[in-house]
Amino acid sequence: MSAMTPAGTTPYYYIPQPSQHPVMMAFGLLLVIYGAGQWVNGAGWAAWVLLAGLVVWLGVMYRWFSEAIHESESGLYSDRIDVSFRWSMSWFIFSEVMFFAAFFGALYWARVHALPMLGNLEHQLLWPDFKAIWPSAGGGVTASPAGTVEPFQTMGPWPLPTINTALLLTSGITLTIAHHALLAGNRGKTIAWMWITVLLGATFLVVQGYEYVHAYRDLNLKLSSGIFGSTFFMLTGFHGFHVFVGMLMLLFITLRLMKGHFTPKRHFGFEGAAWYWHFVDVVWLGLYFLVYWL
């Protein structure tokens, strides 16, 4: 226990005091999810609930990160803690892999199983005008026999998604350059390349925001545009949220670098953020191919 460790020495395994941060973080995320769900379903007041949840979430995250950084810089983290952080980050990224696997699985099931089944002979007796094609905007928009889905156009890979692909791939390269500079002890070069990486991530979000405006305004492609619209916005939207979170991680790491934190031998905070960012890059490549091209 850390309480039994003499002052000025690193404990074998640091155990912090009981904290309110986990429950407050869960409360903030509850507000975010509830507000977002109600806002999507037309409740105007839910936007304020979503905003309140984001404020709580960001506030708790700032305090929690600040305390962890203080503990690290105070010499309370030993090699055992470093191993724990590595395992924790690995399992966290694995849970994110399963999260996106569920949405990719929904896209696969709709295209390969549900759509052909709805177009078979048995269902033709119920919906004679139904066309079992993907996406449901084709075939004279007859993929919605009840008229519940408005006509829409799909989002192609050019130019916005391809631009975003180039931005994310480039950011992965700049992040790797920054990592090698940190390993070489060149802090100034590390900081410069980290700022470039953060800027590329922010640019990605701006381009995606413009893409959404274009989809709603010019293509009439909405979350309510059948299974295509729902899978498109759920996959790209959640990925955009992960880009936002990853960009915040990289921003905090860059600010810590400017304060003199991290050394060539001890910098898992940097490595953990880099792992997450590369995971976001890989997910986007799959999304870019399966959603925009196929």
The CATH class name of the largest domain reads Mainly Alpha
Class derived from helix and strand content: mainly alpha
- Beta-strand residue percentage: under 5%
* Count of helical regions: 8
**Which shape, going by the Cα principal axes?**
elongated
In total, the number of strands is 0
Tell me the number of structural domains: 2
CATH fourth-tier homologous superfamily of the largest domain: Cytochrome c oxidase, subunit III, four-helix bundle
Tell me the radius of gyration.
23 Å
CATH architecture of the largest domain: Up-down Bundle
What does the model show?
This protein has 294 residues and is mainly α. The protein has 2 domains: 1-77, Helix Hairpins, CATH 1.10.287; 80-293, Four Helix Bundle (Hemerythrin (Met), subunit A), CATH 1.20.120.80. The chain has helices at residues 21-40, 46-73, 79-118, 121-124, 160-183, 187-218, 226-258, 268-293. Helix 1 packs antiparallel against helix 2 (46-73), helix 3 (79-118) packs antiparallel against helix 7 and helix 7 (226-258) packs antiparallel against helix 8 (268-293). The radius of gyration is 23 Å and the shape is elongated. The mean pLDDT is 90.
Keywords:
294 residues; mainly alpha; Helix Hairpins; Four Helix Bundle (Hemerythrin (Met), subunit A); 2 domains; 70% helix; 0% strand; elongated
Quick synopsis:
The protein is an all-alpha fold.
Describe the secondary structure blueprint for this structure.
Elements: H1 21-40, H2 46-73, H3 79-118, H4 121-124, H5 160-183, H6 187-218, H7 226-258, H8 268-293
